[in-house]
Amino acid sequence: MGEEMTGAQSLIRSLENAGVDVMFGIPGGAILPAYDPIYDSKIRHILVRHEQGAGHAATGYAQATGRVGTCIATSGPGATNLVTPIADAQMDSVPMVAITGQVPSSAIGTDAFQEADIRGITMPITKHNYLVTRAVDIPRAIAEAYHIAASGRPGAVLVDVAKDALQEKVNYEWPKNIDLPGYRDHSQPVPQSIRDAAALIAQSVRPVLYVGGGVIKANAHKELRALAELVGAPVVTTLMARGAFPDSHQLHVGMPGMHGSVAAVTSLQKADLLITLGARFDDRVTGKLSTFAPGAKVIHADIDPAEIGKNRHADVPVIGDVRLTMAQLLPAVKAEFAKSQPDLTPWWKQVEGWRTTYPVGYDVPSDGSLSPQYVIERLGKISDPDTIYTAGVGQHQMWASQFISYEKPRTWLNSGGLGTMGYAVPAAMGAKVGAPDTTVWAIDGDGCFQMTNQELVTCAINNIPIKVALINNESLGMVRQWQTLFYNQRYSNTDLHSKRVPDFAKLADAMGCIGLRCERPEDVDKTIEAAMAITDQPVVVDFNVFRDAMVWPMVAAGTSNDDIMIARELAPDWDSQEL
Amino acid sequence: MKTHTLSVLVENQAGVLARVSSLFSRRGYNIEALSVGPTQNSEISRITISVNVEGHALDQVIQQLDKLVNVIDIIELPASTSHQVELILVRVAVANGASDQKKIESVLEKHGAHVVESTATSLTIQQTAKPAEIEALISELTPFGIMELTQSGVVAMGRTITS
Ligand SMILES: Cc1ncc(C[n+]2csc(CCOP(=O)(O)OP(=O)(O)O)c2C)c(N)n1
């Protein structure tokens, strides 16, 4: 018989046993019993200002550290405020556990005060979820939740606990083993699939390594580098995989997709083999699916069997942990290459042509105003390569992906799948809590920032000195860009009038942070350096930038990657290229 | 499109049916019929789902279902290698008295269906049979005027002997 305690105590003890060291949350009636033992726990609880912030902070923490992130909220509105970050984490396969209080079990179904069926609501946006109505079931639910969140393809798990279960007395027992008969382990690749993949690689003369976020999740960057160097193929890293392979590496040709580099997009289009590693053929990468990489065979390595063939047929599926897959591919490919190794020189000649002719670049505004790309580029140059960057969603996110050189995994955190505005500030807070000795920069848009900036108060009060580079173009820039291109410059509801309203520097100041402003190109370096020098307080730099800057290249939504544009009405000059 | 029968073994827990139907709605798969019930093991229930999809989509349905933590196993049961049975209760109008009743009874005899309630104006009929036979019975009864119909989904079980 275990120690007698309340369900609430057993919840917190279970979280400790699951290895939780920090959680982000806000108390309220239904979860209140759990907040009493939190008071004595060694787990650090960070009181956020909005549950959405708690959820994204848990995600940022998880993405920066590789551990499961935890958030906690009360029933009803507390729980529904977590819906966005839960969906966000699930879409990006981030290991996250959300704990919510629920009304007492006897009141469930009666439309009781602050009742919301959060288990039902989150069913389609979680990997799994629980409603616990008996104290005895708490430790097992928590043990399973952390196991499910972290293993296989990671994801979001919600545990909803009824208030009476928290109040009930129970003998605490942490489960010795986890028994989930329907939860299969797919981490070991089948040897035959490895042999088949190696054989295809040895026949390919135009291979591309199409690298997705799974490589970072699997901590497989070393294996990736070894495999890439062995095969000698061009490497593209998706928005979720930036940093999985060093940007500075000769084999790296950029990010694929809607705002990818011409070299990355075109090498996928012209490839004869896609060596797909922990990626999922997202529509933002493939463009019009039926015209994506038409001549390529596909090796698809993924730990989730449901991803195989979901969007694109896989000639060789390799179901398994991508780190184990690559570790096993290395000797198999070596053995194949010993027999015959294809000559990739002609392929590289083409790829090199695209890379040198169409580097990702930008025009400096002619009116002398500040170029947003320049700000981001300088930030990347001045910061050291360990720096962690988070981004919101929009133009600034794309520029942050394009103009900063990512050299290490877990240095680029963003909302790729769901595209959640408001992600940057709370995710940066979570990342900084997980990696307190690392500089964390949130690169945010003025639109996104106004969704979740209140977490800067949390940062100021809890000594979480993040830095925010606010790319203030006074508008919902990405939407405005689409209006420029596709809606005849009819700027319906995208002007935020946010040059001085709010005054972001003063707002930062009011929230207990240091607020700085930069409006001229010549001040960029010294402003960044001033922000870098502040290490004991959060800093917000309001960069007032040129509002008509656009993200290029671009493959318009729903069109073919072959129709990539490098500027407005400007396609690459394919005729002068050897195709 | 072809109808496929999936036999899905699930943990007998609250919310499992909701998870399965939520998955179908979220992924845009169409359920034709669904039946749930206990198995010989009290901890396991069986959901039999008839789903109308093509080959590749069927594979996706199975893979996505398999990801549900409470789903223990999924077996596709082709009609050729499984027993598939459906149950109906159907109330048919008896408009022209004895002559109609005679005709209906001969249809029932041919199909081996039987009457569970008989009044001057209607017959309530029960039948358990293969889906195709049920369909045939219903179409033969339709001309008389079907007043009410209730139909279970398919329940299915693989054959012990498959040739
Ligand atoms: C929560 C949410 N609402 C709406 C959108 C649609 N959306 C995508 S980008 C964008 C504009 C973002 O503006 P801002 O933060 O200023 O960034 P910018 O594009 O100007 O760099 C909007 C509204 C979204 N992605 N998320």
Number of helices of chain B: 4
Helix/strand order of chain B: EHEEHEEHEEHEE
Helix content of chain B: 25-40%
- What is the count of helical runs of chain A? 23
In round numbers, the mean pLDDT of chain A is 97
Structure summary, number of beta strands of chain A: 20
How many beta-strand segments of chain B? 9
InterPro entries (chain B): Acetalactate_synth_ssu, Acetolactate_synth/TF_NikR_C, Acetolactate_synth_ssu_C, ACT-like_dom_sf, ACT_dom, AHAS_ACT, AHAS_small-like_ACT
GO biological process, one term (chain B): isoleucine biosynthetic process
Keywords (chain B): Amino-acid biosynthesis, Branched-chain amino acid biosynthesis
Family (chain B): Belongs to the acetolactate synthase small subunit family.
Task: Give a written overview of the molecule.
Chain A is of the alpha/beta class and 579 residues long. Helices cover 37% and strands 16% of the residues of chain A. Chain A contains 23 helices and 20 strands. In chain A, strand 6, helix 7 (138-150) and strand 7 form a beta-alpha-beta unit. Chain B has 163 residues and is an alpha+beta fold. Chain B folds into two domains: 1-75, ACT domain (Alpha-Beta Plaits); 81-156, ACT-like. Chain A, domain 2 (Alpha-Beta Plaits), CATH 3.30.70.1150. Chain B is built from four helices and nine strands. Chain B has helices at 16-27, 55-67, 98-111, 131-141; strands at 2-11, 31-38, 44-53, 71-76, 82-93, 114-118, 122-129, 146-151, 155-158. In chain B, strand 2 (31-38) and strand 3 form a beta hairpin. In chain B, helix 3 runs antiparallel to helix 4. The longest helix of chain B has 14 residues, at 98-111. Chain B is elongated. Classes of the chains: A alpha/beta (579), B alpha+beta (163). Chains A and B meet through loops of A and helix 1, helix 2 and strand 4 of B. Residues 392-396, 419-421, 445-448, 471, 473, 475-479 of chain A line the site of thiamine diphosphate (TPP). Chain B: Pathway: Amino-acid biosynthesis; L-valine biosynthesis; L-valine from pyruvate: step 1/4; Amino-acid biosynthesis; L-isoleucine biosynthesis; L-isoleucine from 2-oxobutanoate: step 1/4.
